[in-house]
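We close this part of the discussion by returning to an individual protein. Part of our work consisted of pairing the sequence of a single chain with a tokenised description of its backbone. No coordinates are needed to read the tokens, only the vocabulary itself. The amino acid sequence and the backbone structure tokens for this protein are reproduced below:
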Amino acid sequence: MWRLTLLAVFLLASPSFASAQRLVARSSDDEKAVAAAEKKAYDLLEAIAGEVSNLHSATNRIRTESTVADLLWSRDEKRARELFKTVSKEIAAQLAGIDLSDQQAYQEISWTNQSRQEIVNRISQHDPELALSFLRESRLSLVEGSRLDWYAGNETNMEMQLAALIAARDPKRALELARASLNQGVTYGVTSVLTNVQQKDPKAAQAFYSEIVEQIKNEDLRDQNLMNAAWGLLSSFHPPQANEQTYGDLIARLTSATVAITPASQNSINLAQSLTFQINAAMPLLEKYGPGNASALKQWAKNIERSFDPATRMYLAMNGAKTADDVLGLIPQFPPELHQQLYQNAAWKAFWTGDVSRARQIASDFVPDPIRRRQMLDQFDEQLASRSSNDNPIAEAHRRLARVKSPERKVQVLIPLASNLISKGDKQGALDLLNEARGYLPSPPQNSAEMHAYVQLASSYAAVDLDQSFAIMQALVAKANELIAAAVVLDGFENRYLKEGEWMMPGPSTLANYINNLDQGCAYLAQRDFDRALALADQLERPELRLMAQLQIAQAVLASQARDLPINGRQFVVMEEGFVID
């Protein structure tokens, strides 16, 4: 559930996905200002590096050290490499210290592994071979019977991702890694390596492709992971890249293995159902390069689909429907409890094909849940507004506001329209809308929805009134300090906020996500006024949170022009009208 909350928070944090189209470019006319900002950022980075040892939480320390190393690479590669090696040892020690008999062990392993993945991604942008060494050195020693079968597969996939990157520089080395992985079976990652090697050395790629197909021909394809990977190879690597005869051999092998599957056990049912989707997606290729096999697979898939539960059959049928009438024609085939989803799908198909009035009519007449019906109608309005060329956006805003009751929803109506005005150069009109939006919110905010609405406003104001943006952010930081102090008292009662005595960043709570969004806001504002943004971050009372905010400020400023900034495993994209977390 917290992941769904996280997604909602990120959507709220962005001023406008539809209108935020241009990346902020540093002014080429003021190189001295750019150099001065970068010097401040590097000075801040050095200060952060000096404070890392004061962090008690290994997780926070590892995250900070890896980010510092990433940012230092272009300036001091030797030091960055040493930092990454330190991180490798710390993660290995963290994994070794996990008690596998503890009920929380597998969650700890999952969190640590996510951190490893993020660090591997960072290092791989600089040196894929170093990333591979890091991956292997920080690996958990598997214990037989410890229910960690997924871990070995995940490690193989990560190695293949790195091998695919290495292929751009050294196809021979990439193939060496990929061939070694075949001892554990064919995986999706092998296909990525094959595709990248093909671009550098087509002859070597063809030889490796033949080896993969030969292995598939000799494997027991009742294993779901292996079968799905083999079908993925068929869909992703095909003629003219693939040798046509070898491709035909692969089609024949997959056909014989697939039609032999009889849905008896739950595992075989899951595999059969999964394969029907693969077959439908690959059917154009099957019909072109193996028409006889295509007919057999098509008939097998139809037989399997009859065994699906009604909801699965409904989604398959909706996926094949092209028009609203096609979807409405499916309704008699399914039980009443699925009708609302069919009507919703029909309404959206009508909307996306341009028949807005019919979309509204279907939603109004046939979606029985009043909340869902209202949400759909609002979504239609929002989509129309985002692409509207209305000459009077202010009138459009107030037309929509008349149907909205909650303050935060009113803000969500006004901010995209304000962003649209900013993109057209009408800063005064945008400022008027933002001031109106601010007037709908109580001060101080009373709940998380209102706080996130304020974060939106602060981001949007930055393009038209930087003082107001900082004023809002300052009030939010003060409120955050209050909430953090209360959360520390309640830590462990319902939610976990602390680990080893420090705030978890990121953490599994709405408040943790909100704090992260504040940090993102400070980082964005730093590109407009570094000193004020740093002073704002310094108002966070807990030292570890202050350090994390400072780190994101340094990262934002040091990012090159038009570059996405990876923060906490997500993408921080700097936009003209505000910041977006993807």
Observations:
- Residues 1-27, 560-582 have pLDDT under 50 and may be disordered.
